[in-house]
User: Fold this.
Amino acid sequence: MKTVVQGTHYDNYKVYLPLIILPFWLLLYIYLESISNYIVYEISGMTKGTHITESIRFFIYEVPKVMLLLILIVFVVGIIRSYFSPERTRKALEGKPLLIGNIMAGGLGIVTPFCSCSAIPLFLGFVESGIPLGVTFSFLIAAPMINEVAVVLLLGLFGWKTALIYVATGLVIAILSGWVIGKLKLEKFVADWVYQTKSGSIENTGHIVSFNDRIEAGYIAVREIVSKVWIYIVIGIAVGAAAHGYVPKDFMASIMGKDVWYSVPLAVLIGIPLYSNAAGIIPVVQVLIEKGASLGTSLAFMMAVIGLSLPETIILKKVLKLPLIFIFVGIVAIGIMFVGFLFNFIF
Amino acid sequence: MNIKILGTGCSKCTILEKKVSEIVNNNSIDATIEKITDLQEIMKYGIMMTPGLIVNDKVVSYGFIPKDNQIIQWLEESKQ
Assistant:
């Protein structure tokens, strides 16, 4: 009889390779600023302080920095995610009371593997197995908004404090929005066929069996995500670099400054239909802040662009009736505005 | 043998469909390949991530694009 080997075949060097690369990664990351300065000022001999030099220096430094962070964090997150699956998350959420369920769903939304094209099957799988609508929404709000690409860019371009604020407030929005949706008892606005069909269940197909498989998952995540987002990062930072050198300081202060009260709702309204991923929008937002936009307004803008997107909302139309879509977008938008106002008030 | 690809039309689903039909052709495996895009039909298999790969009505993988040799192995096992 033939033995069945589930899981991928791996090469052993793949497990040790990251450990060998890590010191080089660290060295490169530490000396990156000096290296890029050397390239721009010494090798190219460009004049210090001019707009064009500063724009080019910005680009030459920021692109490799963000890419280095991206590869490391996506690799680690890929490994972490291999410990989670939608099935296990669903099991963990079954039978949890409302608020606790929302908190867990928000947290699990960050770590469970998720892609926006799977949002609908996931939604169906959750509600059909009896997980409350509000808890399901907490998951569906947290999963796209708090993703590793957004965290990488915030970490690289804004520093760890802003990254932490983004994750924490995003989580609070996901938990509370889901909780409110749960309290409002909106099940009647879910497409009728959803509760009538029963989804099948599958036993764990057991692709991931060993630690080597988890490392392999890290490689796959890096390959998949980096190949998808690198172009957005390059374009986003290029736009940022151009504005960095050429747009006058305080240019944005009169439009997106903290003293302009309507800047937050306006940023959210503009952000919802704008379709971009974290990789494209965050470098642009960095420049907005540099040119006088306030943190609260910028944060609200980013969250609206990344967390609420028109195409995804349209896809939801397959399983939700219109009133629920509007309520969902409305509640999340209010949550985002609240975060915007709060941070404009504090800072 | 009957192969089904479950997916609502994301890029990964299209890639998987192409890959599977190439493998079937190259190895002259006797199989029909069906693309299932209907949500209710997809949910019957209980998967929560697309694309799903179904061989003889059994879910062999979902949520990612398996490697070529892995797919070949699954098809060989189902051939008998």
